[in-house]
């Protein structure tokens, strides 16, 4: 089968399309025929060797995929060949024609959800849910800022926050991105290139913001703290470097900053996340937006695109 392999850490050019043996499921495992694989910023950090989780070389990237069950291993009774599923981590990597997964790490994909949308579920939607529900403990009636509302996690955060009954502010760097954030449920959307956008937020919400979901902390965190209401919370989802903050901005507001890494969720939290994702897909609350599709062989271009400014929806690979 065809799969993307990384034989050394480095730039996008280290992503190579190889021909490797088709996998077989072990005990408690399934093999998924991948119809689409999601591309996440974390994939690029892992590929470069700078991520907190460093895989053993060579490896196939990717945790998010959607497709159909190809075969099942010993002891697996919950799944049958042909079942539509999305993956929440894989054993063998998602950037491939076939992926091996623990049976408990695949979840039903409703007929109304496309494979491309299914490939944009796990990391974006589980991250957004974990940030808002488990980490920030956001409550209906609060105001949330989604900083980077037009990307994969951003769109998920907007949809979820709106469904939770929050007042949703969002930022995006392009007119298309701002329109997307509005369409997906943001009450107010701001251009983060506008030097006065923070003041505009505070004019609309003078007491400050209760929750900020932050995708680029190394750029925004220092100013985020000045936007918080009393007992406000910042959840750091993404950062690409160091940042300087003023601790008094936290002290005076009795505010807090929380770091999030999806791989740290407990089994109980994972169960909640996927139950919520399944319900949201069934009732139409959660609607992954696909921005770009690339053939599997163009994984390097996909990695460049996911890190480029002007994020719009989810980027997926098609084997």
Write structural notes for this entry:
The protein is an alpha/beta fold. The chain folds into two domains: about 150 residues, Quinone Oxidoreductase, Chain A, domain 1 (Alpha-Beta Complex); about 140 residues, Rossmann fold. About 30% of the residues lie in helices and about 25% in strands. The protein has ten helices and 15 strands. The strands form three sheets. Strands 3, 4, 5, 6, 7, 14 and 15 form a seven-stranded mixed beta sheet that branches. The N and C termini lie close together (about 10 Å).
CATH topology of the largest domain: Quinone Oxidoreductase, Chain A, domain 1
Stretches where pLDDT falls below 50 for ≥5 residues? none
> Would you state the CATH class of the largest domain?
Alpha Beta
Let me know the largest β-sheet. 7 strands, mixed
- The amount of helix comes to 25-40%
Helix count, per DSSP? 10
User: What is the gyration radius calculated from CA atoms?
Assistant: 20 Å
Helix and strand content put the structural class at: alpha/beta
> What's the architecture of the largest domain in CATH terms?
Alpha-Beta Complex
What is the succession of H and E elements? EEEHEEEEHHEHEHEHEHEHEHEHE
What's the CATH H-level superfamily name of the largest domain?
A: Medium-chain alcohol dehydrogenases, catalytic domain
How confident overall, as mean pLDDT? Answer: 97
* Total domain modules: 2
Counted beta strands: 15
- Characterize the overall form: globular
Distance between the termini: 10 Å
């Amino acid at each position: 089968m065809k799969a993307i392999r990384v034989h050394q850490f480095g730039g996008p050019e280290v992503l190579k399309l190889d021909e490797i043996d088709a996998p077989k499921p072990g005990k408690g495992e399934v093999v998924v025929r991948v119809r689409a694989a999601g591309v996440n910023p974390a994939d690029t950090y892992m590929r470069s060797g700078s991520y907190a989780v460093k895989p053993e070389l060579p490896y196939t990237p990717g945790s998010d995929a959607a497709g159909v069950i190809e075969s099942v291993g010993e002891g697996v009774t919950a799944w049958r060949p042909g079942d539509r599923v999305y993956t929440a981590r894989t054993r063998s990597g998602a950037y491939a024609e076939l992926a091996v997964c623990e049976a408990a790490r695949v979840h039903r994909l409703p007929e109304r959800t496309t494979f491309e949308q299914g490939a944009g579920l796990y990391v974006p939607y589980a991250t957004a849910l974990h940030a808002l529900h488990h980490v920030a403990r956001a409550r209906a009636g609060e105001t949330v800022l989604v900083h980077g509302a037009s990307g994969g996690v951003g769109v998920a955060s907007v949809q979820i926050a709106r469904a939770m009954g929050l007042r949703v502010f969002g930022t995006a760097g392009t007119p298309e991105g701002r329109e997307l954030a509005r369409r997906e449920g943001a009450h107010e959307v701001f251009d983060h290139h506008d030097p006065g956008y923070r003041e505009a937020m505070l004019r609309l919400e003078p007491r400050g913001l209760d929750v900020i979901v932050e995708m680029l902390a190394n750029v925004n965190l220092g100013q985020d703290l000045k936007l918080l209401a009393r007992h406000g919370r910042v959840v750091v989802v993404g950062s690409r470097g160091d940042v300087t903050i003023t601790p008094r901005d936290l002290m005076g507001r009795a505010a807090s900053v929380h770091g999030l890494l999806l791989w740290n969720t407990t089994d109980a939290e994972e169960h909640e996340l996927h139950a919520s994702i399944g319900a949201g897909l069934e009732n139409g609350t959660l609607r992954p937006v696909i921005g770009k599709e690339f053939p599997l062989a163009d994984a390097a271009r996909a990695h460049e695109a996911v890190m480029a400014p002007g994020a719009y929806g989810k980027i997926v690979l098609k084997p």
